[in-house]
Design a protein that fits this description.
This is DUF6933 domain-containing protein. It comes from [Clostridium] asparagiforme DSM 15981. By secondary structure, the protein is α/β, with parallel strands linked by helices. It is built from 9 helices and 5 strands; from the N terminus they run βαβββαααβααααα.
């Protein structure tokens, strides 16, 4: 897996210019960028093929010093947050291989990264101030329409990611109940990092007794 470092992030970290990576499938490449978001240094990791993006807010210096590990953790959380099962996530990391820092992956991936930055700044939802990984903001940006390096026509990163999984032989196993427009109002979606684990969802509503919202009533397939 290649982790491309943007020039602003390179300057922020005071790193020497990274090397160009060997030619690689863009699906296994991510470009990393730093922005100020709500007054805090924020990491964006954007897939070079499909522009699927994960966001870590309020990064401390200890996090930046361990950037590789923190990025891999964020990608893992992002894939789980998008509804992929543990087996699918593990298959992706096995196929991607060990991580190394490189230059970014060309004009088109960087252009998509810039668009994702614009989408993030337009996000209407509140921050989860007690968490670094911003699940709602990540879902928001990944639902926007744009052009990416890995696809000829415009589309949404969440859809492109699924296509990339299939094209690369990774069975995109999903949680049994898919995200829906009403899911943001469902308390279990804020409690469960898997965002779609039916057993946890139903157990939460049984315990809390608020009634099961329509968004949570789908049965396991």
């Amino acid at each position: 897996m290649q982790l491309g470092i943007t020039i602003p992030l390179q300057k922020f970290l005071k790193w020497k210019s990274p090397v160009y990576g060997e030619p690689e499938n863009l699906f296994f490449c991510w470009d990393l960028h730093v922005i100020r978001f709500h007054g805090e240094n924020t990491l964006m990791a954007v897939n070079a093929s499909n522009a699927f993006t994960v966001i870590l807010w309020k990064m401390e210096w200890a996090d930046w010093e361990n950037l590789g590990q923190r990025t891999l953790e964020a990608i893992r959380m992002g894939l789980l947050n998008a509804g992929y099962g543990e087996e699918t996530v593990e298959a992706y990391f096995r196929a991607a291989g060990s991580a190394s820092f490189t230059k970014t992956h060309g004009r088109r991936p960087v252009a998509a990264l810039n668009r994702m930055t614009d989408f993030l700044r337009q996000a209407p939802m509140k921050l989860e101030v007690d968490r670094q990984f911003q699940s709602a903001h990540s879902r928001f940006v990944n639902g926007n329409l744009l052009k990416t390096a890995g696809f000829d026509l415009p589309g949404r990163p969440e859809g492109f990611l699924n296509e990339d999984m299939e094209k690369n032989g990774i069975k995109p196993g999903r949680c049994a109940h898919e995200p829906s427009p009403g899911a943001e109002k469902c308390p279990c979606r804020r409690k469960c990092p898997r965002r779609g684990n039916c057993e946890e969802c139903l157990a939460f509503h049984r315990d809390q007794k608020p009634g099961i919202p329509a968004a949570c009533r789908k049965k396991k397939r």
